[in-house]
Here is the input.
Amino acid sequence: QVQLAESGGGLVQAGESLRLSCAASGRFSNRHAMGWFRQPLGKEREFVATVGWGTGHTAYADSVQGRFTISRDDTKNTVHLQMNSLKPEDTAVYLCAAGPRDIYPYGTVRISEYDYWGQGAQVTVSS
Here is the structure.
């Protein structure tokens, strides 16, 4: 099993920045695609960003392109999401996810293709 734990959420004003981190443990290796998703209150979970393994390839939702950056540090089994120019509509619970090992070297945007999930971190952006 793989365990994921998010940190770094909080309350910020519009225009400010936050950095989320996801620490992986258990049977985790650097051959898992990683993703960030978010779920606003009362809404469906949606894709935010993904990073592949071994390729450095990343992909983003249109709504965060140019403002958010996903990165991974395989020496520390950690994935980060740098969020700049935050907007009130970015308010949500942000969840880290890991795909199956050795699959999706370029990452994946599909929720159903992730096997492991963290508990989530609340991000609230006030106007």
Notes: The longest strand covers residues 92-101. The mean pLDDT is 97. The chain has no helices and eleven strands.
